Amino acid sequence: HVQLVESGGGLVQPGGSLRLSCTASGFTFSISAMSWARQAPGKDLEWVAFIASDDGLSDYADSVKGRFTISRDNAKNTLYLELNNLKTEGTAMYYCQIDLGSVRLRGQGTQVTVS
């Protein structure tokens, strides 16, 4: 079955950095486009970044463009999100996600707190 396991979150000061990881299993990661999303307390889920299967195309929400970098290692079935110059509004649960047909799947998330 499909598993997405996020890690790397934590407490960081404003202006700090973190690197999130998402280890995938149960599907062919190397041919799958992936994305990151986040949900801040009391707010809706927000899409953050997208990366194509071959690492050749990526896109970002305007709120994180220039500060966050999405990448992947297909040999390790792992997706990454580098968070730089974090702001307090970056406090959220961060999820990696994949669309399999009409179904969108996410992991359990990793908490990032900027304070």
Observed structural traits:
mainly beta; 54% strand; seven-stranded mixed sheet
What's the mean pLDDT score?
A: 96
Task: Describe the largest sheet.
Answer: 7 strands, mixed
**Rg over CA atoms:** 13 Å
Structural class: mainly beta
Total strand segments: 11
How much beta, percentage-wise? Answer: over 45%
Q: Please write the string of helix (H) and strand (E) elements.
A: EEEEEEEEEEE
- Spatial shape: globular
Q: What oligomerization state is this entry in?
A: single chain
**Could you give the distance between the termini?**
37 Å
Number of helices: 0
The helix content is under 10%
Overall description:
- Helices cover 0% and strands 54% of the residues.
- It has no helices and eleven strands.
- It has strands spanning 3-7, 10-12, 18-25, 34-39, 45-51, 58-60, 68-73, 78-83, 92-100, 103-106, 110-114.
